[in-house]
Structures are given as C-alpha cells and as structure tokens.
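pipeline stage [seq->struct] | target=DinB-like domain-containing protein | organism=Algoriphagus confluentis | residues=174
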Amino acid sequence: MDIPSLKTLLWNQFGASIDMLIQAIDASPDGYFEQNPRFYYIAFHSAIFLDYYLTIPPEDFSPLLSFTQKSPENRPKEAIDDCIPDRIYSKKELLAYLRQSRSKAQTLIHSLTEEKFKLRFTEGEEEGDMDYPLLEILLYNLRHTQHHAAQLNLLIRQDMDLHLKWSFRVEELE
C-alpha cells in the first residue's frame, strides 16, 4: 500500500474514534461530571492520553489541562489512573482540548513520510516503558481512544437512555 492511501485510511479511522469520544462527552448534560465522577475521570484520562500518545518524543508532552500524579492511596475511588486533574475541568474545556488534539492527530497523520514512519515513541528505558514505532503508537492511541469512547457511551446509555451514533469514518457525525 502506498503512503498516501495509508494516511487516508488511518485518518478515516483515527478521526472517527476521536469524533465518537467528542460526541460522548458533548452529549453529557450540565452537571453530569459532578453527578458521575467516573464519567469525568474517563473523559479527562482520554483527553490527556490522546494528546500524550500524539507527542513524539513523549518528553515534549505539555498538556493543556494540568494534573498531578498521585499514589493509589491518594486517588479518588473513581479515578482510573494516577493522573488526577488539578481541578474539575468543564465540559467546554475538555472538548476544546480534544478538538486541539484531533487537529494534532490530523496534522501528524497527514505529515507522515517514509522517514517519519521510522520515528519511535520511546518513554524511557525502565521495564514497562513504551517503545513503539510511530505507526504502532498511532494504532495503540486509536484503540485507547475508542475503548474509552465506548465506556462513556455505555454510561450515557445507562444513565440517560441516550443512543449515540456510530461513526464509520471521520466527520460522519458532523
């Protein structure tokens, strides 16, 4: 497969997963973050890690929304990892962050060249640190984003009986 075709296919699917994440958060009513902290922590985690996994090299990561890494005994029970937001960000702030990361993903994917495919996402040299080729971290990020979009969709469906649309390709939800 040629690189232009690969870029188109990759963006169609990655963009669709981001669109579905945005749709799920956007569908949440005002006050829902406070009523359902699990939803909020999943949404926040998704926004942070979408951006993080798009940052090559990862040591250049500078999130728009600040957080503090906390040990298990200092985390809220609803948190899904150690990245705890420094405050409860609004839906508008999370959506703006996701839209910026969406643009970052699109720019990265459209700029791919044979040379860029040789780049690696390398966190460090400790056991368990990620060390992935660029294409693999993009696919990992796509799966991570879709996984959490599905969790948020389930919560929206259970709590509000709201059925959100599936996106087959990028921009089908607009």
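stage status: PASS
auto-comment: The two ends are 29 Å apart (CA to CA). Helices lie at 3-27, 32-35, 37-53, 91-110, 134-160.
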